[in-house]
């Protein structure tokens, strides 16, 4: 749970909006400035597995990515993931 909180705070530092407030365990939602499909494709090209495209199931959540972070992820991996999304956001 600590790693998910860390990832969420890093996302907010990069200007990525943690769009759904409230309690979370190891998942949270961020709103992107690009389609999630494009972000995931770009991430995968760098060997990073992205998040789930909530717009597939909820049309009102287009460009919203569900991110799951477990304790197995290192801070370096989290930072790289968030930086890739954040650099695109600016």
Automatic annotation (TrEMBL):
<dbReference type="GO" id="GO:0009116">
    <property type="term" value="P:nucleoside metabolic process"/>
</dbReference>
<dbReference type="InterPro" id="IPR015424">
    <property type="entry name" value="PyrdxlP-dep_Trfase"/>
</dbReference>
<dbReference type="Pfam" id="PF02347">
    <property type="entry name" value="GDC-P"/>
</dbReference>
<feature type="domain" description="Glycine cleavage system P-protein N-terminal">
    <location>
        <begin position="2"/>
        <end position="84"/>
    </location>
</feature>
<dbReference type="InterPro" id="IPR015422">
    <property type="entry name" value="PyrdxlP-dep_Trfase_small"/>
</dbReference>
<protein>
    <recommendedName>
        <fullName>Glycine cleavage system P-protein N-terminal domain-containing protein</fullName>
    </recommendedName>
</protein>
<dbReference type="InterPro" id="IPR049315">
    <property type="entry name" value="GDC-P_N"/>
</dbReference>
<dbReference type="InterPro" id="IPR023010">
    <property type="entry name" value="GcvPA"/>
</dbReference>
<dbReference type="GO" id="GO:0004375">
    <property type="term" value="F:glycine dehydrogenase (decarboxylating) activity"/>
</dbReference>
<keyword id="KW-0560">Oxidoreductase</keyword>
């Amino acid at each position: 749970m600590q790693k998910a909180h860390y990832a969420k705070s890093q996302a907010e530092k990069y200007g990525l909006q943690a769009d759904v407030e409230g309690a979370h365990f190891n998942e949270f939602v961020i709103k992107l400035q690009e389609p999630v499909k494009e972000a995931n494709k770009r991430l995968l090209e760098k060997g990073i597995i992205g998040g789930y495209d909530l717009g597939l199931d909820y049309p009102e959540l287009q460009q919203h990515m569900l991110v799951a972070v477990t304790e197995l992820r290192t801070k370096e991996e989290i930072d790289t993931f968030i930086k890739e999304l954040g650099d695109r956001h600016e």
